[in-house]
Fold this sequence. Notes:
The protein is mainly alpha-helical. The chain has helices at residues 10-39, 46-70, 75-79, 86-90, 102-110, 116-145, 152-158, 166-202, 205-239, 242-252. Helix 1 (10-39) packs across helix 9 (205-239).
Amino acid sequence: MATNSTSKNPSFEANIDAYYENWLIQLENFLEKLNEVSASYDVFNEENISKLVTQVLDHYQEYYQEKFKATNGDIFLLNSPPWYTSLERTLLWMAGFKPSMLFPTINYSIGQELTPEQGEKLKRLKSEIRREEKAIEKGMAKVQESMAAPPIFELMKRGGFLVDGEASELETVIDGLKQSMMAVIETAEHLRGAAVRKVLDILPPKQAVKLLAAVAQFHLQARKCGLRMDNQSEQYEKTNSFDEFITLFIVGFN
């Protein structure tokens, strides 16, 4: 089994950190454009608005492709990216956003603008997506449960006491598990893309712009809050005082 050392490679971490920070800056620029269009919609023609929507979607797609490329498809890095904050990692579902999270975002960004027909279509789509999410979660659970089944469990239990060809056998087994997990992640990626396309098919351009602005705002705020929380956690570790940590926490949010 080839050793994947990306998670311990300082050059890798520096490169992906720089890429992600630059990607976020570009996302913030797109957010400004989306808000500008949303505030003065009639000033812009449909072609330019559609072009902006496509550019934003392409921006997200570029990130997902770069993420897979940078990690060499390492399932463990994809599920817990070291360039994310602790908060961002808690929001991950199968190495990305959970498709059904789109619907609460729709409700608070454009919920009041939806027609009864749109509401019904979105309700059916939400049920469809949740069914597929559950199927994906069951698939991942089955892969994870297989780790506790013989002979995998016996090999892992012995760990450093493997003999003869058992170490190679364990590596082969783990490779197989990683491939199975990656297959589930790829299914989740397909669902994410399909969910976005189907939602946007239901919305006219003006509503699509508002929704994408809300999604971008959430992404950027999660990053900002995550950085602040991680910094405060580091301060707590340095002070080793809960009272001092609480003081820093309160000041940070004022």
